[in-house]
Amino acid sequence: MEIFTVKDLSKLIKEKRLALGMTQSDASALCNVGIRFLSELENGKPTLQIDKVLKVANFFDIKIFAE
Q: Are residues 22 and 59 in contact, defined by beta-carbon separation less than 8 angstroms?
């Protein structure tokens, strides 16, 4: 899947979390981010800390690269 917007990434992260049967609480603990942060990420908040976004993306095996 190509990601063009914050909403695209948000949707993908939420889909991956749900596919693994994880709650936001479970995922946030494993990613070492707060539940509020994960909730805001999944809801497409455009002003989040990129280092934390990348941490969550990496946890869910979402690769971000440039061509």
A: no
Q: Which helix (H) or strand (E) holds 39?
A: helix 35-42
Q: Which residues contact 33 (CB under 8 A, 6 or more apart)?
A: 52, 55, 56
User: Strand, coil or helix: what is 19?
Assistant: helix
| pLDDT score of 45 | 96
Entry pTM:
0.91
- The pair of structure tokens assigned to 64 is 């971000």
The predicted structure's pLDDT at residue 2: 86
Q: What is the DSSP string of 20-52?
A: TT--HHHHHHHHTS-HHHHHHHHTT-S---HHH
